[in-house]
Amino acid sequence: MSITSPADAEAELLGRTGFRLVELGKVALAMADGALEPYGLTGRHLRALTLAASGVPSQQGMAARSGIDRTTMVALLDDLERRGFVRRRRDPADRRRHLVEVTDEGKAVLHKASHALDRTEAELLGELSGSDRRHLGRMVEHMLGRLRDRPGLPPIDC
Amino acid sequence: MSITSPADAEAELLGRTGFRLVELGKVALAMADGALEPYGLTGRHLRALTLAASGVPSQQGMAARSGIDRTTMVALLDDLERRGFVRRRRDPADRRRHLVEVTDEGKAVLHKASHALDRTEAELLGELSGSDRRHLGRMVEHMLGRLRDRPGLPPIDC
DNA sequence: CCAAATCATCAGTGTGACTGACGATCAGTC
DNA sequence: GACTGATCGTCAGTCACACTGATGATTTGG
Predict the structure, then answer these.
(1) Which nucleotides of D are covered by protein (CB under 7 A)?
(2) Least packed by Cβ within 10 Å: which of A119, B36, B43, B63?
(3) The pTM is what?
(4) What is the DSSP letter of A85?
(5) For strand D, is any atom closer than 7 Å to the CB of A116?
(6) C-alpha distances in Å from residue A5, one per residue of A77, A124, A145
(7) Which chain A residue has its CA at the smallest distance from B123's CA?
(8) Which residues of chain B register pLDDT less than 50?
């Protein structure tokens, strides 16, 4: 399809499914950040906290795994530590490393944040039926699966 | 559902449809920027160019319509003008305003960019069937329709 | 024991958009 | 016609944010 009238140019750009998906992604991120805000967390903080909870050994390992820059990871963990959600401890087995362990407070906030995200997700998906949600999930999964290790794509650092 | 084991925490976060949608949006944006790059355009340049083509009168009107900051719009149009894609002219009816008109070169690049985005979209949607694509489009549309004028959401400035 | 590699960190840099101000112009009022 | 307030485009300064490159501490392998 080609551009027929000048006034259609905008509609043609904005109407693309790709553009809508970009828009939807931004809205979803904004909603998640909004839901996390009462806990003083951003999406990246949560990502870092989750990585710590999943037992990734070193900070650089967490950075590599998530695509977050290693120096940014330091700052994120600084925040989380200041708030008492994680604790850094030298790895006795390799004293270059810091073991990042989630405190009880960190676990509690992770739990609460998880529920907040559940509510956000419910709001995001709106009145979509169960089968619609499954279908959507499958299609998104399918697209991401094919594209994820496409050359030249930046890592998704959340 | 609650977190059962630490190792599941990451999967639970990353497996959410909301998170996947954020990821897909970022991938889609990166692909679009990649497709536009040969023409020296970014998504925002294209958005500005499209706004100019659709006949929005003033620069500030374009900014307001798109959510792009007014000073950023100046810079975008500076770029586009330097490349000869648009031309600024005082509005004779209101000499405060600049009429932004798309040059023939601008129209040509808009046309080529549109085709590039078509190809990107084909790659993004992959092997989804026609009915899947329609279903996806309807669902995305439905979600965006409900969420778009939700309070507190930032404008989508592309 | 030494060289190279790895880890966490930090200071400096750079990019990108926003804030606030400016001169120019217009619309409405007296 | 002069005055006031609003709007337009622009620019300089600022701010947030993440990245580059370097550093000291530590480990690993020869």
Answers:
(1) 7-12, 18-21, 24-28
(2) A119
(3) 0.88
(4) S
(5) no
(6) 52, 34, 37
(7) A147
(8) 1-4
